[in-house]
Amino acid sequence: MNTDKHNLIKRLFPTTLLTPDELEQKYPERTLPLNAMVTRVAPSPTGFVHFGSIYASLISERLAHQSDGLFILRIEDTDKKREVAGTADLFAETLKRYGIIADEGLIEPGKEVGNYGPYKQSERASIYHSYIKHLLEKGDAYPCFATPEDLEALRARQEAMGERSGYYGHFALWREKSIEEAMAALDAGLQPVIRLKSPGNFQTKIMVDDILIGKREMPENDQDIVIMKTDGLPTYHFAHAVDDHLMRTTHVIRGNEWFPSLPLHLQLFAVLGWTAPAYAHLAPIQKMEDGKKRKLSKRKDPEANIEYYRQAGYLEEAIIEYLLNLANSNFEDWRRANPAADYRDFPLSLKKLANSNGPLFDLAKLNDISKDIISRLDAKTVTERALAWAKEHDVKLFELMNKDRAYTEAIFNIERSGVPKPRKDIGRFEEVRNEISYFFEETFVLSDEDLKTAIADLNGAEPKALVSDFMAVYDEKDSPEVWFEKFKEVAARHGFAKSPSDYKTNPDKFRGQAGTAAKFLRVLLTGRTQTPNLCYVMQVMGKERVMKRIERI
Ligand code: GLU
């Protein structure tokens, strides 16, 4: 290397940096079992956590761990203008909450572990500089002092000439500039970017291979892309190549919006003298709108934001189950065959991922899965989790439930433990308020109008007498069957048919069916026409509450 070039590089990178060889030693090949996958998720902390990011993270984590490999959470924060404070930690916290456990990187808010770090790109500047310096020395990169105006003029010129736009070949303004010109620009106080001197030819087709998309012919990259910005930080393209090499990533699993950049990325690996990892580009999660599929959108769909599910009180395990459903369609059969198994026992397959179209998001399906899971939890667990949710999201409900936890637990226990078909009434904790509010005096409502309607349905029977006759024989210990037998007896005395068939044969003889009379009692006690079995509801409420409500008539 001549002295002028040496001086130029020295001016660009005045401090001592590790050499590429030293970096290889510092971050050696990992010793892992054969075929172990090292995967990573590499979010840019630019705002909320997208549902699709958790999907990609789960897939990456599962594939790593089921192959006895490693899963890394790396933060790609080189775009300081787009960064939103706190969102790197939010991502870490979210993964942790979902049990998607990273082995290295930002494993929880503010806590980084692993020997291949730092795991925040903004803290890795000196590592990138080592390689940029190395590329400058080899003549595979050069400083570029083009101003935004220069680039705009270039674009206009290319358009006028009918040429492909971009910074390439003879259009690359600083590619062939001399060392003297670069020095002069530095002397003038200008700050350069560093560009890759692309060895590619756009006319040449290369075959790229993606695990999901398959083999595709694509033009070689010939763009002299920016690898280091004026702020000294690299661009995503360059940083990911360096990081995935040094972190010894074996599989890059990422959104397919990056697929068009694959020729560039493969070129970067080649120029740096490295073997590229395997790539799998995921099709985005789709949503049906007006009979058409479209990408689940950050701007349009509140459910694209993972916080939506926390707010609504979905169980994290329901989301995980649902994501596995989206990832591999055979998960559902596996789950049916293994109802109690840990989802981690499911062999997730990269090959079976829905590819070209992307999986279809369906909130109703998620609700069903969630209801199913909640229905299988015991009352104590439901109470604890509902309380934890309410504490954050519905303080009034929290206070209500917390006042008498045993009572709350008894409510959740209705038609739950030990019954063959537990109730599936709660899909997310935001539904709890509506499901249980009538059990508490503070939130019980029975409008005069509803009461009047219920009385009218009695068809002239005396409401007070009906109820007090029933309460005279009512025993809290009765089973629902005995309860109903007793109720029918009393209803019959007040002119109701004991059975629907009796009523059908002789409708004129009765005021209605016993069931209609029971409906009146239900409305009186709960303010609702639909509740779990009234016998259980009364048991849980206890005689005192029941009597108090009866006083209303
Ligand atoms: N930071 C990139 C993004 O958020 C990550 C892409 C990748 O996984 O390599 O889209």
CATH topology of one domain: Rossmann fold
Percent of residues in helices: 40-55%
For the sheet with most strands, the description reads: 4 strands, mixed
Using DSSP, what is the number of strands? 15
Strand content: 5-15%
Ions, cofactors, ligands: which are bound? glutamic acid
Structural class assignment: alpha/beta
Low-confidence stretches: none
What general form does the structure show? elongated
Verbal overview:
The relative contact order is 0.08. The chain has a four-stranded mixed beta sheet with strand order 1-2-3-4. Strands 5-6-9 form a three-stranded antiparallel beta sheet. It has a two-stranded antiparallel ribbon with strand order 7-8. The protein has helices at 3-12, 20-26, 51-66, 87-97, 125-138, 148-161, 179-187, 236-246, 262-272, 307-312, 316-327, 331-337, 363-375, 379-393, 395-403, 405-412, 432-436, 448-457, 463-473, 480-493, 500-505, 514-526, 534-550; strands spanning 38-41, 70-73, 104-108, 111-113, 141-144, 193-196, 205-210, 214-219, 226-228, 251-255, 278-282, 286-289, 292-295, 496-497, 512-513. The mean pLDDT is 96. Among the domains are: 125-282, Rossmann fold (3-Layer(aba) Sandwich), CATH 3.40.50; 445-553, Orthogonal Bundle (Arc Repressor Mutant, subunit A). With 553 residues, the chain is α/β, with parallel strands linked by helices. It is elongated and about 110 Å long. α3 (51-66) packs across α11 and α19 (463-473) crosses α20. β12 and β13 form a beta hairpin. The protein binds glutamic acid. Glutamic acid (GLU) binds at residues 42-44, 76, 236, 240, 252, 254, 258.
